[in-house]
Specification:
This protein has 413 residues and is of the alpha/beta class. It has 15 helices and 11 strands. Helix 8 links the parallel strand 6 and strand 7.
Length: 413
């Protein structure tokens, strides 16, 4: 195949390098130029028509040889590229099978209600991808990302996703994990500050001196820190009540805490749809339109998965990305159904149309992307805030290669 391509290229070069053809062509062109000047002085009646104009001898044959050689050369190169690609695909498939046979079981963890993982599990994308390769897929759901990363560091799970804040506390505790990717567009409806319906708290400044429940080391923890900062309230001027969400719910219902910072799942469970109380506002209304950069959703793996099973990691990220696209399509369909309800007010309809346009644009993009400087910069600022407040025992460098994988985007759609 290579010989075919090279032979065609040599044939092409030969057509250019032929001294006889070049000399003949130059002589012919000179004669043709003189003939053209002479015909210019003729009257229109005696001037030859375009059909009567002659070309230098051998020009047509030379062009045909050139085009033929070029076509053969390009055809050979395309065929060779296809052969190499198919051979690489076979090698990659064989290597994936070897990794799957070696790993035997892949355990996935995710926070309860996280849309992408629930779609990934419901559609059985991983099971289909590794079908016949001897790799068992197990699933575990968790109430929060903080407990998720604890199990990841102990090897109970191999791969997971969740809020970025938990990784700061885990890194400070010297847990073993690797940040491998992030969601391109975080869900800003995930975190809320709830107060009882009859509460006197109506704005962030009213939180001073109050008992506030939240899950330590979760994104809700960081949201509270930022809200207190925005309101000019020192962290020591509140009474923190650190509880997991299922434990904080009962205290909130009984009125034993004044406010509750809750991590709302990306697809709320039935129980959380009936949380009591009212919200102080959305994250954007409380902290500004750039807050999405501060609360990213990240994906994590054990170091062994990254080091010893790169093809499984690549396939895993590809299927998570596919689940993200499917999840966006489902949300888009839900919003379009709501758009048709006549009972909605005009402002609500306008907001729905804006959300629909955003989702339609995002579906055309990747949902999962590699870590970048901007993400790590905001995560480092978050870690610095926790350290200044003495909420973590030591400074952490989130860009440390031990904990953050800066890789080229080598997974496909």
């Amino acid at each position: 195949m290579v010989a075919c391509g090279l032979g065609a290229i040599q044939l092409t070069l030969g057509a250019f390098d032929s001294k006889a053809s070049a000399t003949s062509l130059a002589t012919s062109l000179s004669a043709s130029g003189s003939a053209t000047q002479s015909t210019a002085s003729l009257s229109p009646e005696r001037r030859p028509s375009p059909q009567q104009l002659s070309y230098p001898p051998g020009t047509t044959n030379w062009l045909l040889h050139y085009l033929l050689a070029l076509g053969i050369g390009l055809g050979c190169l395309v065929a060779w590229n296809g052969l190499v690609t198919r051979r690489n695909d076979r090698r990659s498939g064989a290597s994936l099978a070897k990794e799957a046979a070696k790993l035997k079981k892949l355990t996935i963890g995710y926070p309860e209600g996280m849309r992408i993982f629930e779609e990934l599990r419901r559609q059985q994308l991983l099971e289909d991808r590794f079908q016949g390769l001897g790799l068992q897929i197990d699933w575990r759901s968790y109430p929060s990302a903080s407990s998720l990363l604890d199990d990841l560091s102990q090897g109970w799970i191999d791969f997971c996703g969740g809020g970025a804040t938990a990784s700061i506390f885990s890194q400070a505790a010297h847990h073993l994990f690797v940040r491998v990717a992030r969601e391109k567009y975080p869900d800003l409806d995930a975190d809320l500050i709830l107060v009882p319906d009859n509460s006197s708290i109506h704005q962030l400044q009213d939180l001073r001196g109050k008992r506030i429940a939240f899950d330590e080391g979760s994104s809700a923890h960081y949201v509270l820190v930022r809200c207190l900062e925005a309101a000019g309230i020192d962290y020591n001027d509140i009474e923190p009540v650190m509880l997991a969400q299922q434990d904080a719910l009962s205290l909130f219902k009984e009125g034993l805490v004044d406010a509750w910072v809750v991590w709302m799942p990306y697809a709320p469970t039935e129980a959380r749809r009936h949380y009591p109380g009212r919200s102080l506002g959305s994250l954007e209304s409380l902290l500004g339109s750039d807050v999405g950069r501060e609360v990213p959703t990240l994906y994590y793996a054990i170091p062994e998965l990254i080091r010893d099973y790169p093809r499984i990691t690549k396939a895993l990220l590809e299927e998570v990305n596919e689940a993200g696209v499917l999840s966006l399509e489902n949300r888009l369909a839900e919003l379009k159904d709501l758009l048709g309800l006549e009972a909605d007010s005009q402002p609500a309809q306008l907001a729905l149309k804006t959300s629909i346009e955003q989702l339609e644009a995002r579906i055309q993009e990747r949902t999962l992307v590699p870590l970048d400087d901007n993400t790590l910069h905001h995560l480092q600022e978050q870690a610095n805030r926790f350290y200044r407040l003495r909420l973590i025992s030591e400074r952490v460098n989130v860009a440390d290669v031990t904990h953050s994988l800066r890789m080229r985007q080598n997974w496909s759609y």
